[in-house]
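On clarity, I found the account of how folds are encoded harder to follow than it need be. Since the whole study asks how a given chain folds, the encoding of that fold should be made plain. For the editor and my fellow referees, an illustration may be useful. An entry of this sort, consisting of the sequence and the corresponding backbone structure tokens, reads as follows:

:::
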Amino acid sequence: MKSRQDYKESIQDLRRDKLKGLIAKEEPEFVIFYSSNKEYYNYWSAISETNFKEIDPIIINEKNNLKVKIAKKQKTFAVIHHPTAFGVRNRYYKEVAKEIKTVANNG
């Protein structure tokens, strides 16, 4: 491949279909997407059949601009910050878990 972008484009459909197949087969209650980079919203949206660009984020930590986007369909899908993102600590994941639970229970 000539570039990282070429590589990503060459495997995107394969990865999307593989993930959708695994979700259908394994039937998880929750699916977590680890990257809040807007570049991936279309990818996460295609896998979950949810438009994450239209979902308002839930602010977890305003100081570090940490948030989560959660969608409830047959399953609960969440887009969260990658563990290596600036400001992400264990507390962020605890708060994200609370928000996911709330959305999952209230649909």
